[in-house]
Automatic annotation (TrEMBL):
InterPro entries assigned to the protein according to its UniProt record, in alphabetical order: Acyl_CoA_acyltransferase, GNAT_dom
Ranges in a coiled coil: none
Gene3D superfamilies in UniProt: 3.40.630.30
Presence of keyword Nuclease: no
UniProt keyword Magnesium, yes or no: no
Molecular function terms from GO: acyltransferase activity, transferring groups other than amino-acyl groups
The name this protein goes by in its record: GCN5-like N-acetyltransferase
SUPFAM superfamilies, sorted: Acyl-CoA N-acyltransferases (Nat)
Lineage: Bacteria, Bacillati, Actinomycetota, Actinomycetes, Mycobacteriales
Domain N-acetyltransferase, residue spans: 34-214
Keyword line: Transferase
Length: 220
């Protein structure tokens, strides 16, 4: 797919009650950005639907308009959203970010808690650290839209006005932290919480990162 270098990008909320309009292209964007095999959507769609119902859930999408010729390409058509989310019939979704309020009964929360204990944090300190946070669950930009600051716009929109004390996330470890995701998180002030953690069912090492909220001071 050709890069969308010059087309303007619009960032807007993705309402839960309109998930039937944006969920398929959002999951397709995620699968493509993560280089997962086609067919992975089947397993991810139910999970994302479950997350939408969690307390404090919020999501934003990044949209852009393609030419009439590009809109005929199958790869772009997979990213197309339907009215009333799209402002034109050629607008497509190229980025998605969502998260929700963390809670002890969530799988991700239990994974981080167990990792902190194994790293030597006491149970009381681990519970206090995880008492009030927003989990940044997913942040993905389609390869055709990367390198244009779309991820930062999505993240700052998602974290604006959050009531939690902090935001936490997990991301795959990368040698030298040398990719766009790590660069974005470090630029916005995220620091290490736990490194080289292996989730159950995934052999890749992950890092947990976090920072206080609000995000307003990230450029100071």
């Amino acid at each position: 797919m050709a890069p969308l270098d010059s087309t303007p990008v619009r960032v807007a909320p993705l309402p839960a009650d309109l998930a039937h309009l944006w969920l398929d292209p959002a999951v397709h964007t995620y699968i493509t950005a993560m280089h997962y095999p086609r067919g992975s959507e089947t397993h991810r769609l139910p999970l994302w639907r479950d997350h939408i119902a969690r307390p404090g859930w919020s999501a934003y999408g990044a949209f852009t308009t393609v030419s009439a010729l590009d809109s005929l390409r199958p790869a772009y058509s997979r990213l197309r959203v339907r009215a009333p989310l799209a402002v034109s019939e050629r607008e497509i979704l190229i980025g998605v970010a969502y998260g929700y309020r963390g809670a002890p009964d969530q799988w991700w929360n239990r994974q981080l808690y167990s990792g902190l204990l194994r790293a030597g944090t006491g149970p009381a300190d681990a519970r206090e650290f995880m008492r009030d946070y927003f989990e940044l669950t997913e942040l993905h930009v389609h390869p055709a839209g990367q390198g244009r600051g779309v991820g930062e716009r999505l993240l700052t929109a998602l974290l604006a006005d959050r009531p939690e004390q902090k935001v936490l996330l997990s991301t795959p470890e990368v040698h030298g932290e040398d990719n766009r995701a790590w660069s974005l998180y470090r630029r916005l002030g995220f620091v290490d919480v736990l490194r080289h953690f292996t989730f159950a069912g995934d052999s890749r090492p992950f890092a947990f990162l976090g920072r206080p909220l609000p995000l307003d001071d990230h450029r100071r």
